[in-house]
């Protein structure tokens, strides 16, 4: 039996429609979108716009052209942060952040002189929303945070944070790497100015895909410039979206795969996907808690977490546990700091070098969880 529990890194397997649509495009088209005046180029461009429209439907975005494609969520976050922030700007973030947010902020602090306030979350990953409001000052420009932790799975109160940002007249950036496709997201209800997403996790697309939703009336400095397939006589990046931020040939086949993944989500229903994952999360937490000597991190309840569960076994190194799960049981998990050292400091696992993490996805089963529990009991 082979079990994949690393969906927090990349979802696998994908729905058949993803493989089919990508293969079909490669075999029957395969050209660059927006780079030719022939029929196949138009078809490729229409397919890419179809992906934008599907994402707009999923996130309740009124104008699909406000969704800009990138290679991953990290690039999307860098575009937002480096395109928006200037010397003297103040940013509020949290102690749970992935390096995708934390490292760009620290570079901007060093290179541009921005100011950062890091709100400390508790050991379960919960944040005191009042602390965010209390830290807003005259030069505060942005609240930037993840939607759910990639270490403990805790879902932050995005609706409340968006209200605070809107009330204070500042911007709100939400990193949805762990929630897009598995948890309801509405940019209008949540007052999101920048929504960064990746295609290869909950959205069920391939690697090399992601994007950034940019709210109306916001102009970011492009992260890169070059050919866009139009306005070639201009020596500068075009003003209109999405071309302003999509210089160079985009990952057409990957974005067609992403569109297929989003189509599967829309057809299945985000509520059904969430309900199934909640059932699996609850079952996994209940069974893990029965293992003597297992230290479980994060929220005990399932309503405020996604399918990311981290733990350690007393007396055993996390890397050793992950190695044995793979080599002896063919169970694939992740161990270490998960590119989020501040989060591990928050939950007191940093001194241990991190933790073992399982990422539960829509295609996992209770039988697979039972097999994991049996393996952990034998390893312990």
Please explain how this structure is put together.
With 380 residues, this protein is α/β, with parallel strands linked by helices. The chain folds into two domains: 3-12 and 270-379, Alpha-Beta Complex (Aspartate Aminotransferase, domain 1); 16-268, Aspartate Aminotransferase, domain 2. It is 38% helix and 15% strand. The strands form three sheets. The protein has a seven-stranded mixed sheet, with helices on both faces. It has a four-stranded antiparallel sheet with strand order 9-10-13-12, with helices on one face. Helix 6 (158-168) links the parallel strand 5 (140-146) and strand 6 (171-175). The radius of gyration is 21 Å and the shape is globular. The mean pLDDT is 96.
Please, how many domains? 2
Architecture of the largest domain, according to CATH?
A: 3-Layer(aba) Sandwich
Number of distinct beta strands: 13
Q: In terms of quaternary structure, what is this?
A: single chain
**Structural Rg:** 21 Å
**According to CATH, what is the topology of the largest domain?**
Aspartate Aminotransferase, domain 2
Shape: globular
The proportion of residues in beta strands is 15-25%
CATH superfamily of the largest domain: Type I PLP-dependent aspartate aminotransferase-like (Major domain)
């Amino acid at each position: 039996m082979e079990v994949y529990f690393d969906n927090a890194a990349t979802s696998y397997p994908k729905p058949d429609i993803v493989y089919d649509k990508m293969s079909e495009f490669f075999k029957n088209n395969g050209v660059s979108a927006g780079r030719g005046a022939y029929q196949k180029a138009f078809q490729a461009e229409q397919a890419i716009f179809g992906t934008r429209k599907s994402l707009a439907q999923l996130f309740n975005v009124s104008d699909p052209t406000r969704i800009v494609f990138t290679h991953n969520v990290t690039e999307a976050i860098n575009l937002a942060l480096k395109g928006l922030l200037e010397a003297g700007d103040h940013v509020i973030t949290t102690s749970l952040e992935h390096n995708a947010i934390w490292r760009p902020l620290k570079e901007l602090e060093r290179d541009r002189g921005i100011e950062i306030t890091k709100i400390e979350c508790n050991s379960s990953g919960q944040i005191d929303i009042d602390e965010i409001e209390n830290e807003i000052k005259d030069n505060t420009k942005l609240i930037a945070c993840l939607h759910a932790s990639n270490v403990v799975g805790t879902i932050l109160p995005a609706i409340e944070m968006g209200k605070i940002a809107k009330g204070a007249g500042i911007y709100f950036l939400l990193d949805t790497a762990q929630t897009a496709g598995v948890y309801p997201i509405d940019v209008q209800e949540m007052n999101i100015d920048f929504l960064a997403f990746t295609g290869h996790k909950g959205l069920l697309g391939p690697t090399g895909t992601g994007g950034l939703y940019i709210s109306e009336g916001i102009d970011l400095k492009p992260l890169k410039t070059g050919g866009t397939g139009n306005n070639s006589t201009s020596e500068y990046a075009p003003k209109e979206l999405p071309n302003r931020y999509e210089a160079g040939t985009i990952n057409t086949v990957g974005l067609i795969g992403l569109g297929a993944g989003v189509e599967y989500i829309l057809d299945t229903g985000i509520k059904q996907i969430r309900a199934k994952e909640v059932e699996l999360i609850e079952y996994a937490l209940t069974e893990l808690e029965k293992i003597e000597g297992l230290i479980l991190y994060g929220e005990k309840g399932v309503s405020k977490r996604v399918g990311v569960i981290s733990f350690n076994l007393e007396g055993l190194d996390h890397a050793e546990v992950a190695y044995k799960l793979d080599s002896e049981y063919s169970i694939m998990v992740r161990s270490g700091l998960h590119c989020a050292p501040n989060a591990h400091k928050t939950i007191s696992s940093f001194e241990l070098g991190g933790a073992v993490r399982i990422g539960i996805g829509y295609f996992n089963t209770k039988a697979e969880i039972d097999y994991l529990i049996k393996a952990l009991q034998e390893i312990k």
